[in-house]
UniProtKB/TrEMBL annotation:
This is Uncharacterized protein. It comes from the Bacteria. It comes from Halotia branconii CENA392.
Length: 77
């Protein structure tokens, strides 16, 4: 039996993948600003990125993880 939630999860995962693909073309400054925005949304009041979000790869992984969670599916995109 197919779960009625599966189509929604697939849509959410696709949205997360599209967001990350879009952000892969962003500059380091744009990614950093977006990461700070996400951190502020989840309650962090720092004005600088933490040590584990200093590289472009770390930032993209953070955004991908947050997007997939926010869109309803925690998965490595």
């Amino acid at each position: 039996m197919t779960s009625p939630a599966m189509p929604m999860i697939r849509v959410n995962l696709e949205r997360a993948k599209l967001l990350v693909k879009e952000l892969e073309r962003s500059t380091y400054t744009q990614l950093s600003a977006y990461c700070l925005e996400v951190l502020h949304e989840i309650g962090c009041n720092d004005t600088e990125l933490p040590d584990n979000l200093q590289t472009r790869e770390q930032q993209l992984n953070f955004i991908a993880g947050f997007a997939s969670y926010a869109f309803g599916e925690v998965e490595n995109v």
